[in-house]
Amino acid sequence: MVRMGPDVPLLNEYKQEFFWKRFPQTVLGGPRFKLGYCAPPYVYVNQAVLFLTPWLFGGIGTLLCQLQLLQELHAAVLSGMLMFAAAAGVQALALYAARRSGAVERLGAPNILVDEEEVEFTNCVSPETLRFIAPGKRFGLNVVLHTVLAGVLCGFGTWYVFLGRLTGLYGSIGVSLVVFVLSWVTLCIAEYSLIVNTATETATFQAQDTYEITPLTRPLYISIFIAVDIVDRFSSIAPELASQVLHVLFLFLPLLWALGVLPPLDALLLWGMEQVLVFGLGGSPMSSNIRLLLMFGVSTSVAVCNYFIPSTLGVVLFSVSTGFLLSLDLSQIGTLCKGPRAAFRNHGLHSGGLPPFLPTSFGWNLGCRELLVYLSLLLVAMAEAGLLHHFFGSAQSQNLTTGPQGPVSYLLIILFFLCCALREIQGAYVFGGMFLNPLYPKGISNGQTFKQKNRGLYIAAAIRRVLLYLVSPFAMIAFLSMDTSLQSLHRVSVSVGFTRAFRVVWQSSEDALLQMVVLILVRLAGGNNLLPGWDHLGTGVQLLLVGLLTDRLSQFLAKLKFTLTVLVTSWTEKKQRRQSAGTLLALNASLWPLVLAVVTLSALLSAPLLPLFTLPIFLVGFPRPQRSWPGPVGTACPCPDSIFYQQMSGSLASVLRTAFARGSLGSLAPGSHFLGRFQDRMVWIMILERGYGYCTVNIKGLELQETSCHTVEARRVDEVFEAAFEQPERLGFTQGFNLHWGNALTPCAAIAVRVYSDARNVLSGIIDSHENLRKLQDDFMKALIWLLLRYCVQRRKGFLWRSEEGSVSGVIKSQSSQFAQTTCNQPSEAIMVESNVSSYRIRQDSSSLTSFGDWSDEDDLFGPQPARRTVALVTAEAQPGHSTLQIGASLPGSVEMDSLFENMALSALQPLQPLGLSIGMPAVDKGRNPEVLRESPHLNFSCPQSEIFNLPPGWRTAPLLPSRLLSLRPLFPEDWFRFTLGRFGQAVQGETSEDMTKALKEDEVLKELHVKVALSCLISVGAESAFTSPSYIYRLYCGDVPWTEGLDWLSSSKELYQLTLQAFRFSFKLLFDQASLGPMESPEELFSTLEEYERDWYIGLVTEKGWHDSVLQEKPFLFSLGHDLTMGTYTGRVLSLQEQLIQVGRLNGEGVRGQWANLSWELLYATNDDEERYSIQAHPFMLRNLTVQAADPPLGYPIYSSAPLHFPCL
Predict the structure, then answer these.
(1) DSSP 766-785
(2) Residue 332: what pLDDT?
(3) Which of 133, 302, 532, 602 is the most interior residue, by most CB within 10 Å?
């Protein structure tokens, strides 16, 4: 992304025109009075008539009622019936227009020069006009439902705004008329969006309205007002003042709809269930909508059962048991019983990303040990609650100092302050991120050293875990079980309050401890004085209100900090200072009570604070679930770099489990966001769900190809982390103060994770050094000999399942991948050769021409012809001992004549041979490699053990002159061959005698066999002379082998070809290591190095599938050779798997929600998808670009996103 100035337009000209056409339509509920092109007057008149039709019918009913010709109920029914008839007529016309316009569209050709929104109107009732005004419904059920609802809404709306009712409420005809007129405007807007044309809502939750739910949004809110008025009329619960206020608020519904404050139906339902589950029933936000629905239903059932249980002891025991069970992650029982690796594999993580100690860690696998612990906790809690309630539950003393709750109350206070202090010292900062923690180690980059320095904090964390997860829940249960308000359980409020209280003790022990301490302090402050209205609520309801208050207060403070950050940085940051910055600051300063009211309202509704275009223009976003997005968790925009995040997710989840349990990342709550940084990787972590002993998170990976905006914010992230973790110990107030406190990111802790460290080196001076290149040929021969002998050893041990004659796919797998097929589903190492080995490239003037495989005459005018059998195929079929050769295409211009032998070409027939002697045949040139024609599959080895190291017969048939091989014989390292043969011989035979090893080394037939194969491979890849060109080395490393005389033979043997390519890559890695570390001093060192390459390294290309698989399988090291075309240099890339410290910080959750709310509004409503828009530009304090990336697709673009990961936190 190219960063533009701060005065980049918020909306480009096209989007501005589009927005000012859409927004009036949203305000009025659907009428399109601003089209952008000329339209006949009847288009506007028809829309105005349909808009005012409900008012007309309601006015008829109101007039008849005012004239006392009809009663209120009858007048409302009449208005509703008239509206129902009108709605049915509109739907019938829409259906007629859809059918007629469909027929017209099939006959007429579209005019591509006309604007896509422009409609050619012919008359006021033409199908085009009707379809433009009333598009109709997609589903027949919605036609019936919306039509009936329109009539019902008009009838009840007429009854709701009768003039007599309004006059009785306000006592003034003038006020009543104003309320009557504006109320009907609200009703007309809702009716139009329901039955005629639905406007796009500013409060958009789903990207697409598949089931036409949006038309029901505005009628729903009107129905809520009408329902409250009905309750007010027929009962004395609601005072008259409330009805007056609601009638006035009813007038502002169009404004709330236009501003997007009121949520759509789906978001309202999910948000409402989440709020009731968390604050009314003691649960937690869920990681998916299905889990939320199921947990809400089960939790509601528990509260209902508590209300009908007659015994208070039964209520206590039932609440304690169900609260404990529902706080566990019950949905993971089936998955976790299969083992932790199966669980993570179901989450889309590769098993290689899990550390080996997981199966023995508590909580990963729900086995006998975990069941025993959970059952013990449940039995102890029930026994404690039952005994305490039986003996002390009926005590009459309410004084904490003299009653049975007194000692427990003081214990809870002590536990609270101890847990807070022990948690606070676990992080890099204390006191809300304002001051550096002097106890936290700094300036350490090694994981083991960091753990040793942190040992004291780990002991404190272990003490905190015992106090928080074992001692505190039982202390809180004791406090609740002895409460006297349990005697009045058969009140709905008290029943719900205690159901929540016993649940939240386990679901969120830290929050429950805070709420009880606040309640105890209030009671201690009140002493013996009764607080009117407060003491009659009961302890359960009091805890509910305290929990709601503390949550809203924390949201208010976070939103206020976000507001100040946006306001201050809009002026202090020069690159964010727009021309309108001064004006906006002046408006916010003069209207600060309004700004404060907006922040307060958004906190009370638990709705995001929406900064419009991320400017200091604050609106209340519509309430939505904590996850912020409607879709399932785990969607991403994958790319090749996604594998690095996928590999580290398993290890990161394991470490996060420990960090969460220790409290290193602070207090955890669903909706919390964390950012991790390591080298060029950014990890976004979101808490989805929290319970007793488990936590559910979503891990996202941000792009590695950093744009300019990404780089600016990443640099600021590095500065924030450096100030917290890499600076030496600092003393004093000014030195210990967090200079980045206003930033959205607050550093928490550094955690040790097994990740790949990425090192890139420019190979100038290595790949172009003549001294190094001279060694490459010798190293290639040694590596090839080692791989050939190793191939024989593995074949002997039965690890090679496919023989030379088997069919081989186009993707060439490495020998180690075949070895891995016996132990895992995916190969541990695979070499994908990009060049097509079935069609060989002929090079001329250093440029590749079209291969023979592309010279095909298959594009025949008369269709494809049957495949012809050529001479090579017939000859191969005639020789059963040889592998089937590939069928090449005919050269351009050649002609094949059809014969009587089916589809066999005449040229494919072998010449007739007389019986006996080959009289009359052309003489065979004995100088042209007669071994190709007569190669015996059996060789006479002098040593019986040499048969183990025999090579396949097809590997001995290279079409090369013996003299040519003889001239290259000095290149064969005989000493290395004998040394390697001796080492592999011992590996195959075990304890062998020295005589057997000596006989094996002195077998000349075996040696000559390997000499011939190795030198043939050397010639086939064009390496018979010393390497002199870096470009040639790079091409050969990539598998782009230039055409040579023996390339046809080498490529026909897939396994030999991949062994040769692997040998060359090993030799280049040897060159790289020797240039960096020095030459190999002995054959033993070279042998061990090649063993290490085979065992611990993947040496190939980044674009190969083997690279992807090796990263997921956590190969310890990976090496790749690259070419930078812009710089003209060759680069080496080394990935090394090691335990590294990843710095993790907490983000301002309300700032993230606010920016995501603006992103949703800007893209889904304003359709401002400009990649250079202002709201996506870099912001070092708000981290605006990173936050946009981390949003769920299609609005964001993380390259990796895990499914919800459940892991234990005890």
Answers:
(1) TTT-HHHHHHHHHHHHHHHH
(2) 63
(3) 602
